[in-house]
Design goal:
Largest sheet: none
Distance between the termini: 15 Å
Order of helices and strands: HHHHHHHHHHHH
Number of helices: 12
Mean pLDDT: 85
Structural class: mainly alpha
Oligomer: single chain
Strand content: under 5%
Length: 254
């Protein structure tokens, strides 16, 4: 509700959830490239005739692993593979203290696979932003919460539900992740400047200590606070209470 994933009208929740989950399934089907399907397609194109001889195929006229054409499925697949390597490094480092994310066993592997797929899907749906290091830390609390729903029918759709909440969350933060906007009036440096001004107005003593006595650059502590929403500063249960306060502020989300 706080991220506006569901409407205020409770009567619309069931239909909204069904539509969103169906959308997510379609996104995965259309955008997540399945190499086994590509290989099956290639095998069909080289099917043998009734007498056992192979049907000749001009590889220059078909899609193949060495293709450099912009519409090549294989080119897209290898591009996704490079992106997945970056995402995988971050996913494997997510909350190493929690069995849910970093333990052994099939359940943990499923959680990691779900996170990889959701973050890859976000990157493909948002080519202007793509995936930025740290987004895994923002998706993880949402996915964790939905996965632990006491209703198994709801928990089954944790990946999709968390994805759309993540999209809403990033919509409020995307300027902080866009490097081209770093020095603009809406980028991360401007946001840190606003935080520094608020600190000077609300806790002058602390601001004087940081700014004048120790001369600590606000970027050293505020950058991670703002971009990762304190996910590195608090244990997960405490973090969820912090997020509840941030998202329900009468002054607006974040």
């Amino acid at each position: 509700l706080l991220l506006e994933y569901l409407p205020c009208d409770r009567k619309k929740w069931k239909s909204t959830l069904a539509a969103k989950r169906n959308d997510y399934e379609q996104f995965c089907e259309e955008l997540i490239i399945n190499p086994s399907k590509v290989m099956a397609s290639e095998a069909d194109s080289h099917a043998s005739t009734q007498d056992g001889s192979l049907v000749g195929t001009d590889v220059t006229a078909t899609d193949h692993p060495l293709s450099v054409q912009d519409n090549s499925v294989w080119k897209s697949y290898f591009k996704d593979t490079d992106l997945l390597e970056q995402i995988d490094r971050d996913v494997m480092r997510t909350h190493p203290d929690l069995q849910f994310f970093s333990g052994e066993g099939d359940a943990t592997k499923k959680h990691q696979d779900d996170m990889r797929r959701a973050l890859l899907l976000f990157a493909k749906l948002n080519p202007g932003l793509r995936y930025v290091q740290g987004m895994n830390e923002l998706y993880a609390p949402l996915y964790y919460t939905f996965s632990l729903d006491p209703d198994p029918a709801m928990a089954e759709h944790a990946e999709a539900d968390a994805f759309f909440c993540f999209v809403e969350l990033i919509s409020d933060l995307r300027d902080n992740f866009c490097q081209q906007l770093d020095n603009s009036g809406v980028g991360i440096k401007a946001t840190i400047g606003k935080l520094n001004t608020m600190l000077s107005e609300n806790d002058r003593e602390l601001w004087v200590h940081l700014e004048q006595n120790t001369k600590v650059n606000p970027q050293f502590y505020a950058f991670r606070w703002i971009t990762l929403l304190f996910t590195q500063e608090f244990d997960l249960p405490d973090l969820m209470r912090v997020w509840d306060s941030l998202l329900s502020s009468p002054n607006g989300r974040l």
